[in-house]
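Q: Please design a sequence for this.
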């Protein structure tokens, strides 16, 4: 049993997850980074942290199913039982949803169902809300629509701009995501003795 993190970009959540898993000695380790963007900065973080990473270029595959089958093949090599999405900018398709049903998690920088999709922080600023936040949820076939697991609120002050709000939200993400991932994965491990 292992965890794979799927990411497309910067990878600050990936790094925090790896750090927390090591500091806290998680029962289920993070064994692999999968990225759909070969030049993504998250790959350098994986190298520095000595986590194996596998990059895919989705456009080189015939279709989404073929791409996800290739990803699934690598996931099986690493005995991956949980997928943790951290800035993975792509919808999960039927291939991975069926293989990992109920064991795919995502983090989103808003209080869902408000502001799903791209640029949730920009959406919150444009809407002028006084409170936004962070949501961890199960992944289904929709865009940020799966069952909500945990949420934490972040206040938006008069003086906040994109940079300051992003900083506050990311600080909350880095605290919340490792806590929630560990809890779910370890609870599941204890209730599923065969795996
Ligand atoms: C986070 O804000 C997360 O909520 C969203 O994408 C961002 C990823 O940031 N899904 P990072 O790459 O982990 O720094």
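A: Design:
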């Amino acid at each position: 049993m292992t965890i794979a993190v799927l990411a497309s970009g910067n990878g600050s959540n990936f790094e925090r997850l790896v750090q927390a898993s090591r500091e806290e000695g998680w029962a289920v380790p993070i064994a692999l980074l999968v990225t759909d963007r070969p030049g993504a900065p998250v790959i350098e973080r994986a190298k520095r942290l000595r986590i194996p990473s596998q990059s895919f270029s989705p456009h080189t595959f015939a279709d989404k199913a073929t791409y996800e089958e290739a990803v699934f093949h690598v996931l099986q090599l690493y005995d991956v039982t949980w997928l943790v999405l951290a800035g993975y900018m792509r919808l999960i398709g039927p291939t991975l949803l069926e293989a990992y049903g109920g064991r795919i998690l995502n983090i989103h920088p808003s209080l869902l169902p408000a502001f799903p999709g791209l640029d949730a922080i920009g959406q919150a600023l444009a809407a002028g809300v006084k409170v936004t936040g962070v949501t961890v949820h199960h992944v289904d076939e929709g865009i940020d629509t799966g069952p909500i697991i945990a949420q934490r609120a972040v206040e938006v002050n008069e003086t906040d701009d994109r940079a300051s709000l992003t900083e506050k939200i990311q600080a909350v993400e880095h605290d919340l995501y490792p806590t929630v991932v560990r809890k779910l994965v370890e609870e599941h491990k204890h209730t599923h003795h065969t795996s």
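Q: Thanks. Anything notable?
A: The longest helix spans residues 162-191. The CA atoms of residues 79 and 100 lie 12 Å apart.
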